Amino acid sequence: MTLREIAAEAGYAAKSAHTRAYELLNPRLNPHVVKAVRERRQELAEKYSVDYGRHVRDLQRIRDAAIESGAYSAAVQAEYRRGQAADLYVSRSEIRHGSIDSMSKADVEKAILDIKRQLGEEPRIIEGEVIEPEAGKPVLESVKVGTPESS
User: Fold this and answer.
1) What is the pLDDT of residue 133?
2) What pTM was estimated for this model as a whole?
3) How many helices (H) and strands (E) in the chain?
4) CA 137 remoteness from chain centre
5) Are 37 and 25 contacting, i.e. CB atoms less than 8 angstroms apart?
6) Which residue in 10, 55, 96, 99 has a CA-CA distance of 20 to 30 Å to 81?
């Protein structure tokens, strides 16, 4: 519920509910209300908090109920999550920023060569010069082919 809805439910006029909610939660105007709200939120946080023991126990209950009902996929997921909570699984991810558009031509060529080496391919460098003959069709001249070590 929004603060406006709560104030209206508490009996304040709908037209002024937003203002009354603001005033009630202003610590300078109503410190006792702010204190009571803070205490209630703390009670709820403690009651519904997630701690390791409760988390693993609940996942075990879910797993057991899933096995009893024949939902083996759900049981496997619950057991997997228990393992994650116990740090039995290592999750690795790689986040890269930027894109090929932000790389220079030399950086792109180097990255392609690195990938080819990782794949076990011997990279070849092809250099050439494009000229424009008749009818605007490009033709490649002066081609030099070799490996990175020979260039």
Assistant:
1) 60
2) 0.39
3) 6, 2
4) 47
5) yes
6) 96
CB neighbours of residue 71 within 10 Å: 15
| Separation between Cα atoms, residue 27 and residue 37, nearest integer Å | 11
CB 136 within 8 A of CB 144: no
The token pair that represents 13 in the structure block: 């006029």
* Cβ density class 20-36: b for 16+ within 10 Å, e for less: bbeebeeeeeeeeeeee
What does the domain layout of the chain look like in residue ranges?
A: 3-47
Q: Where do we find the tokens 């990175």?
A: 148
Amino acid code (one letter) for 129:
E
pLDDT tens digit string along 107-150?
A: 888 888 888 888 777 656 666 665 556 655 555 555 555 555 55
